[in-house]
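Bench notes, afternoon.
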Amino acid sequence: MSSSSSSPPSSPRRRPVTAALWPDMVYGVLSDSKRVVAAHSRHFLALTVLFILPLSLLLLILFTPSLLPPSRSLLRSSSQFHLLSSILYPLAAVLLLLAATSSISASTHHGFFGRPVHLLPTLTSIPSPILRLILTLLFPSLLLFILLSLLSLSPSPLFHSLIYALALLLLIQSSFTWSLVPAIAVLECTWGFHPFRRSFHLLTGMRCAALILNLSFSLILGLILWGFNSGVGLNSGICSQAVRDIARTVLGSGVTTLLLLYWIVTSTVLYMYCKALYGELEAEILREFAWDYVFLPFDDQKVPRVVSVVTQL
């Protein structure tokens, strides 16, 4: 291996961000997300059935308690059952979300470069990213728990409104500052506070695009959960209650599953776009396609010439 005569730059130069860049970036992220999912539709369908569909059903159960049958048995009416369900349902939802984020982010990363994706290696690689996500999101979860615990300190409506406003501000802040944290923790094998600093750095100048994407998905998802919770459009007297519940479950889980899938995919593609703006994607492309290039040893000022033999995928 020959040494380079000139030292590499200390940090990649960032491309200038203009005011008209973020709409193009939003369109490009959505277009590439659709392209990646369409190119590996069966793979993402399998991951969706394994993780996102059960997660969607759990979300419908958590946010629409009317989908549960009425309390008839002693077990269902007991406080132990309610305590157990209030712990198990959110815990299962969190684990499914972490597994979906880990597997779909890694698959999107491979699909973004046109690499083949395989289900079994994706599933076997899930535990390590899940552990990194847990260690990374531990501090924000603790902060959220403290905010919720403060609600029990005072019955004042003003105090409750203040806590809710603070939680909303933190949520909005995280949507355009730390939205790349899951993708960074999964793809860069980091955990702790580093993914937060890295996300803040990559989203500099592109927070408007991240805010629009995340708020759009969260707003649509919230409206869907609210609509199925209130039974909007399904309270007609033509159908029985059982038919309405089945329709709400099928429609709600289907739409929620699709939204969650594309939310995770677009977050990963947005991460790739931000890396491209910082000039970090070129080196990764060279690593990805290292076996598809031939380096001929031309001695022309010590600069190797690259002959592309990339096969059409």
